[in-house]
Design a protein that fits this description.
It is a single chain. About 5% of the residues lie in helices and about 45% in strands. The protein has one helix at about 85-90; strands spanning about 10-15, 20-25, 35-40, 55-60, 65-70, 75, 100, 105-110, 115-120, 125. A hairpin with a 4-residue loop joins strand 8 (about 105-110) and strand 9. The longest helix has 6 residues, at about 85-90.
Length: about 130
Amino acid sequence: MLDENLPTFYLRPSSDNIKHHASVLLAQYGYEPAPAYSVRHPDPALPGSRNRYAVALYDSYHPDILYGEVLLTPEWTQPSLSQDEIRRNGGVPPAPQPILPSSFIIQLYNPDQQILVQQGRNAAVGL
């Protein structure tokens, strides 16, 4: 059982009924969970969101206040056009595979600051 005095965050679907938005609730000192942040992802149906992962953290009570955001754009492998690869794949060239970046930047606002996160040997490490 968690200690009710410790801060605990809960995710809940956003009240604006947009599927890719969520509310982050904070419970602490035995109080009921209250909205603390709003997490937003871009609409995956939009062409500008294709093959990208982005997330932004907004204030729950003032939705124009942005605290930070992250954008990841993977690179893609070029499929091998060798006859052996095509034969092993049933006569179809293999599909490109995403290559996730080994580092990305978290953009924070007020104060403006960038945090570089690089993949370490055993875990991701913030610098």
